[in-house]
User: Which sequence fits this backbone?
C-alpha cells in the first residue's frame, strides 16, 4: 500500500500550533544556530532497516503472525517505504542473503528508487545450512577445520558481493556463528587462522569502493567460545585484511555492563569503526527495541559517535542499521519506535556543549562534566525531530499517524493473514 501525502499533511496540521509552542520553548535553552544545525543533521541521518525485520516476530519457541506480513522482497521494500514516508529516516534497506535474493534486480532497483530507498550493507548467512548445500556449517563455516566447508562459505560471501554490486550496495557485513560448545572442541589458534585466511579471500573479491564490515559476538549460539568474540579480535582481523575492512559494533553483542562507548571511541580514533547495529538488551543479546531498556547508555554511545564524527576524519562514514527483534509487537510499529529512540539519542548528543565539557575535563571538574552531559540528556528534543520530519514531508507523530491511518489493517486486507516473511 501507499500513503497519500495529503493524509499525512492533514494530520500534521492538527498538531501545528502545539509543535510551534514546544519548538519555541527549546529556543529558550539553546541558540538558534545550534538548533538549526541539529535539525539539519537529523534530517540528513538515515538508518537502514534489515529485510528480515518486516515479518512477524515471536520468541525462540514460536513465531506469532501479526497478519499482513510481506510475502516477498518487493513487499518488504514497500513496507520500508511506508516507514520512510512517515519518518523520513529509513531511507535504506540491508538485505540478508539467501533469505532475500532478488528475482528481478532491475525491478527491485526501480521500486526502491520510487520509494527513495537505497541498498545499504549486504549480509551473508553461514550460520544456517541451506537447502541443497553440499557442506554443513555444523562445525563452523569460515573457521571450519574442513576445507570444503570453508570454501563453500567463502563462495557464498562472494556471491553476496556480486548480488550487492547489481543493487548498488557498497559493503558486506560478515557475522559468524562459528564457535565451540565444549572445551577442547577445537584449537583456538587454528580456527582463528582459518577465519583470517577466509576473510582475506573474501576481501580480495571486494570492489574498490566497497567495505568489509566484521561483526563480533561473545557467545551464542555456542556457549564456550566464539571465534570472533570481541572488538579486539574483529579489529585485528580487519587490520589483517586491509584498509577497506572495518569493525562493526552491534549493541547486543557484548557481555553485561561492557563500556560500549569506550569501544566506539577507540575504534574511531583508530579509523576502524565501519558500522553500527542498533538494539537494546536487559540480560544479553536480547535484540529488544532500541532505547527500550537503556536510553541513557544509548545517549552516551552517541556522545562518542558525535565526537568521533566531528574529530576523526580518518574514520569513514558509518553504516547505520537496526538489528532488533520486535518479538510480539507489530514489526512496523517497533521499527518506528526504534528510529525515534535513535534520533532522540543523536539529537541529545548533538546538543552537548563540547567547549564547556572540554574545559570542565581540563579542570578535572567531575561534577560539571556530569551536569553538562545530563543537561543535554534531560532535554526533550522531540520538537527537533518533528521539525526535521515536517520539513522533509514526514509525519509529526509517525506512530500515531500509522495507527490513525490503520496501516496494519490495510496490509492484512491486501495480503491476508497467512503470509509468512522469510527470515528468522
Assistant:
Amino acid at each position: 500500500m501507499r500513503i497519500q501525502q495529503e493524509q499525512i499533511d492533514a494530520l500534521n496540521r492538527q498538531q501545528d500550533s502545539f509543535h510551534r509552542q514546544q519548538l519555541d520553548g527549546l529556543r529558550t535553552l539553546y541558540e538558534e544556530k545550534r538548533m538549526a544545525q541539529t535539525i539539519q543533521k537529523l534530517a540528513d541521518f538515515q538508518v537502514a532497516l534489515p529485510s528480515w525485520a518486516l515479518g512477524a516476530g515471536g520468541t525462540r519457541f514460536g513465531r506469532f503472525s501479526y497478519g499482513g506480513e510481506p510475502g516477498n522482497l518487493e513487499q518488504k521494500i514497500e513496507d520500508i517505504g511506508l516507514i520512510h514516508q512517515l519518518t523520513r529516516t529509513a531511507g535504506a534497506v540491508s538485505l540478508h542473503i539467501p533469505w532475500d535474493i532478488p528475482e528481478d534486480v532491475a525491478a527491485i532497483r526501480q521500486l526502491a528508487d520510487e520509494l527513495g530507498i537505497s541498498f545499504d550493507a549486504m549480509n551473508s548467512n553461514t550460520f544456517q545450512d541451506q537447502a541443497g548445500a553440499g557442506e554443513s556449517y555444523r562445525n563452523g563455516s569460515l573457521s571450519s577445520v574442513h576445507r570444503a566447508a570453508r570454501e563453500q562459505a567463502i563462495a557464498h560471501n562472494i556471491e553476496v558481493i556480486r548480488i550487492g554490486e547489481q543493487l548498488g550496495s557498497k559493503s558486506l557485513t560478515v557475522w559468524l556463528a562459528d564457535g565451540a560448545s565444549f572445551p577442547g572442541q577445537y584449537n583456538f589458534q587454528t580456527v582463528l587462522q582459518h577465519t583470517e585466511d577466509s576473510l582475506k579471500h573474501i576481501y580480495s573479491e571486494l570492489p574498490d569502493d566497497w567495505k568489509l564490515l566484521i561483526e563480533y559476538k561473545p557467545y551464542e549460539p555456542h556457549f564456550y567460545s566464539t571465534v570472533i568474540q570481541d572488538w579486539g579480535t574483529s579489529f585485528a582481523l580487519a587490520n589483517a585484511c586491509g584498509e577497506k575492512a572495518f569493525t562493526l559494533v552491534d549493541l547486543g553483542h557484548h557481555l553485561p555492563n561492557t563500556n560500549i562507548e569506550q569501544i566506539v571511541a577507540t575504534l574511531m580514533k583508530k579509523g576502524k569503526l565501519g558500522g553500527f547495529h542498533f538494539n537494546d538488551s536487559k540480560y544479553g543479546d536480547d535484540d529488544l527495541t532500541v532505547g527500550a531498556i537503556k536510553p541513557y547508555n544509548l545517549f552516551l554511545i552517541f556522545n562518542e559517535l558525535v565526537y568521533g564524527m566531528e574529530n576523526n576524519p580518518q574514520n569513514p562514514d558509518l553504516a547505520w542499521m537496526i538489528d532488533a527483534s520486535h518479538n510480539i509487537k507489530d514489526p512496523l510499529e517497533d521499527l518506528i519506535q526504534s528510529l525515534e529512540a535513535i534520533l532522540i539519542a543523536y539529537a541529545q548528543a548533538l546538543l552537548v556543549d563540547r567547549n564547556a565539557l572540554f574545559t570542565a575535563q581540563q579542570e578535572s571538574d567531575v561534577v560539571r562534566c556530569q551536569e553538562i552531559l545530563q543537561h543535554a540528556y534531560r532535554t526533550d528534543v522531540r520538537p527537533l525531530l518533528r521539525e526535521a520530519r515536517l520539513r522533509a514531508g514526514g509525519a509529526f507523530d509517525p506512530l500515531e499517524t500509522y495507527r490513525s491511518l490503520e496501516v496494519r489493517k490495510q496490509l492484512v486486507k491486501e495480503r491476508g493473514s497467512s503470509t509468512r516473511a522469510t527470515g528468522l
Notes: The chain has a mean pLDDT of 96. The radius of gyration is 22 Å.
